[in-house]
């Protein structure tokens, strides 16, 4: 499968479709995220690697497009320990409620990173 671009990921009306996506890989990524315990975080790269992929971007796409209300998406951060800017307030608030203490909008991955 080649890289997924925004043009490949949506119909003209904006609805998402997954034609050509490895749905087994996508499900493995969602399963990895579901296993991250409260009070811990992983990076998109961690999620991808644990699911058998080399694509952190695909992990982000899967979370953005295929997760549901039960998916603990807020426990997944960028490689530098920060959330995406458009999610920062909600994501850091959810992490704080689980005992993760961000400093200046960044989570200390050495302290909070989950290792399966």
N→C terminal distance? 27 Å
Structural class: mainly alpha
CATH architectural group: Orthogonal Bundle
**Uncertain stretches:** 1-9, 11-15
Roughly what fraction of the amino acids lie in strands?
under 5%
CATH class, named Mainly Alpha
Please give the domain count.
1
Biggest sheet overview: 2 strands, parallel
Radius of gyration: 14 Å
In total, the number of strands is 2
CATH topology: Arc Repressor Mutant, subunit A
Q: Average pLDDT value?
A: 88
The CATH superfamily name is Winged helix-like DNA-binding domain superfamily/Winged helix DNA-binding domain
In the sheet with the most strands, the strands line up as 1-2
Question: What order do the SSEs take from the amino end to the carboxyl end, as H and E?
Answer: HHEHHEHH
Alpha plus pi helix count: 6
Dominant shape: globular
Query: Percentage of helical residues?
Result: 40-55%
């Amino acid at each position: 499968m080649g890289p997924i671009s925004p043009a490949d990921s949506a119909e003209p009306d904006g609805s998402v479709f997954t034609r050509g996506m490895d749905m087994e890989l996508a499900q493995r990524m969602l399963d990895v995220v579901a296993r991250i315990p409260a009070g811990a975080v992983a990076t998109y790269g961690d999620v991808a690697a644990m699911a058998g992929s080399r694509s952190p971007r695909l992990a982000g796409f899967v979370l953005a497009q295929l997760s549901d209300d039960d998916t603990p998406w807020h426990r997944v951060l960028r490689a530098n320990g920060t959330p995406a800017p458009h999610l920062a307030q909600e994501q850091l608030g959810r992490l704080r409620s689980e005992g993760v203490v961000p400093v200046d909008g960044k989570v200390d991955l050495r302290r909070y990173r989950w290792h399966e």
